[in-house]
Design goal:
Layout (H helix, E strand, L loop, with lengths): L1 E5 L8 E3 L7 E5 L3 H9 L4 H7 L7 E5 L2 E11 L5 E10 L4 E5 L4 H7 L10 H31 L7 H34 L7 H67 L13 H23 L3
Parallel strand pairs: 3-7
Antiparallel strand pairs: 1-2, 1-3, 4-5, 5-6, 6-7
Helix pairs in contact: 4-6, 5-6, 6-7
Length: 307
Amino acid sequence: MKYHYYRSIRDQKINKVSELKKGAWIFAHTVDADEMKELIDYGFDEALLEDATDYFEVPRFEYENGINYLYTRYIIDTKDGELSTAPLLIAISETNVLTLSPRKPEFLDDFAHGRKDITTTQKNKMVLTFLESIMHDYHKSIMQIRRLMLRYFADVGNISEQEMKRFVGLESTLADYISALAPTNLALSMMLTRHKSLTLHEEDIELLEDLKQDINQLLESSKSVSKTIGNIRSAHEGILTHKLNLTIKTLTMVTITLTVPTLITSFFGMNTWLPFDNGPVGFVVVIILIALVTFGVLKWLMKNYWK
């Protein structure tokens, strides 16, 4: 799908236009062969456009034939309910801005339908607004994961198996965030130092520097939350191991304790002469003997091994 949107500083709202005009935003996603050809006819590089359709494309900055290509990744919901990232190309030419993704970026749809304000003729400001929106989604997602982990941390001993499986998914999500944010930060640095055909005013440069700082903070937050998840898993494993050890120790003591009367009764059950075998109080004596020996063994075990 490919759409053209236009809004100047004099327009009240953004409008969809049928023909490409100077200052318009080209909103493209899940493009077919014909639409890809149209983008190439607009002057965009075919190979770099193809890279944007690769779901595993890594964020980077490229410059080709007067056009700046910034690849980044934004947050998406996967089919299994987990969060991941998808690639997004933001190409800035002398006349237009193109956004291209292999799937529909919902956050850009808000700008296209006027739910969030942009002015398409102010290219650099529009691009920075898109990037700020992406980083805001990262920040929101990371904070949600952090709050969830803090709740689990307060009751780490009662985490279920299903919740532990969810932790694995969250760790994978955070790793995906880190692998997307780190190269994006590098791409913005290259954009600052190697920008061509871009008129970056002092205000634009300050916004880019702020974005870089925000990304650094997001990277630190992602690493911190990932470490917290690892600590919770380690603590949970330690608690489970301790409980298992207690259970094994208890079962061992019970087994040893029950073995003593079993041995004594087996001894007195032999078909030969034994003390008290004909006496009227033999049964009582054996029971008392069993109780005393069992109590002695149990007391010795608790003193030496139940600590």
